[in-house]
């Protein structure tokens, strides 16, 4: 188990991404994935109020609704639900009024009385940060939210949030959710990690498998092999340097009897300040591999080798 920041949230060191629920995973598949994740020891589920409004026919909130139905059906013990605000079509941005309304809507969809971890999903330059910070603090004060967090914020804006909260006597955020993986390291390690270390924030990174590239599935940058937009994004990393990362993951994983994907997530989990990488599964058959990543401990030599081959900046 791992603790998120200064909170009392002790969680399995892998978060299940809920972005696929109501999109590439229908209700039955979503329930099967959630069942398998929980049965395997997983207890941290990450979603957002905007998932999955981009799907034709959806209006946003589908992921939260499915998770809420699963919670009501299964009544699982020890589940931590993290969700986010700012991208639902009806609740865009981070004004105080919007944050309150969005949180109440998320609580209703999830069928819970309190949100365990509530993220500001994307920074909102149109709303004064003071207003956003105070609105999140009010949610904590009123018992709607246990802990606050930020996602996709720059290091400077995280620092500003913390300083505003400190000055006002508000609870500080406990987590940061950045885009971070073996082929997307520099910005996070150079700017976000130092701030997280200074203020005892945990990283809960998304895109831990680089849109699928770090599964080893995409070893060509040819568009014909890429196919879908997601696959095209993954294939963009298939440069000679990117493929060296895959080859090294394969070698390191073999020493642990682990897949390329599980090894990539294990590397990420062992980075400074990282509490639990986020990974999604569209099929229940993918869940055991994700869970396995949380139980792999790479040696210092293996980590150093992966650090060495991934010390580059992709053109993508």
Care to describe what's here?
By secondary structure, the chain is α/β, with parallel strands linked by helices. The protein has a domain at 2-177: TIM Barrel (Alpha-Beta Barrel). 43% of the residues lie in helices and 13% in strands. The chain has helices at 27-39, 62-74, 96-110, 129-141, 155-168, 186-199, 223-226, 229-235, 240-256, 260-269, 287-293, 300-309; strands spanning 2-3, 10-11, 15-17, 44-46, 80-85, 87-88, 91-92, 115-120, 145-151, 175-177, 202-203, 278-279. An 8-stranded parallel β-sheet has the order 11-10-9-8-5-4-3-12, with helices on one face. A two-stranded antiparallel ribbon has the order 1-2. A two-stranded antiparallel sheet has the order 6-7. Strand 6 (87-88) and strand 7 (91-92) form a beta hairpin. Helix 1 crosses helix 2 (62-74). The longest helix has 17 residues, at 240-256. The protein is globular. The two termini are 34 Å apart.
């Amino acid at each position: 188990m791992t603790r998120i920041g200064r909170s009392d949230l002790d969680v399995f060191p892998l978060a299940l991404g809920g972005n696929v629920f109501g999109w590439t995973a229908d209700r039955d598949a979503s329930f099967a994935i959630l069942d398998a994740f929980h049965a395997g020891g997983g207890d941290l589920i990450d979603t957002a109020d905007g998932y999955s409004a981009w799907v034709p026919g959806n209006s946003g909130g589908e992921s939260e609704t499915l998770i809420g139905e699963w919670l009501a059906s299964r009544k699982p013990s020890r589940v931590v639900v993290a969700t986010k605000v700012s991208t639902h079509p009806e609740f865009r941005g981070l004004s105080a009024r919007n944050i309150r309304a969005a949180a109440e809507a998320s609580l209703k969809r999830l069928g819970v009385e309190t949100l365990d971890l509530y993220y500001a999903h994307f920074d909102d330059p149109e709303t004064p940060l003071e207003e956003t910070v105070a609105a999140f603090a009010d949610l904590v004060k009123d018992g709607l939210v246990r802990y606050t967090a930020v996602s996709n914020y720059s290091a400077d804006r995280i620092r500003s949030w913390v300083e505003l909260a400190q000055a006002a006597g508000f609870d500080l955020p406990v987590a940061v959710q950045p885009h971070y993986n073996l082929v997307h390291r520099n910005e996070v390690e150079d700017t976000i990690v130092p701030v997280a270390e200074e203020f005892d924030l945990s990283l809960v990174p998304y895109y831990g498998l680089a849109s699928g590239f770090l599964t080893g599935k995409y070893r060509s940058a040819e568009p014909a092999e890429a196919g879908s937009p997601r696959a095209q994004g993954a294939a963009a990393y298939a440069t000679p340097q990117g493929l060296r990362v895959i080859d090294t993951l394969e070698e390191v994983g073999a020493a642990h009897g682990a897949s390329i994907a599980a090894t990539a997530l294990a590397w990420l989990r062992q980075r400074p300040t990282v509490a639990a990488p986020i990974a999604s599964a569209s099929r229940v058959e993918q869940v055991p591999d994700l869970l396995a990543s949380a139980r792999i401990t790479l040696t210092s030599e293996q980590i150093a080798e992966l650090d060495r081959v991934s010390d580059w900046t992709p053109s993508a």
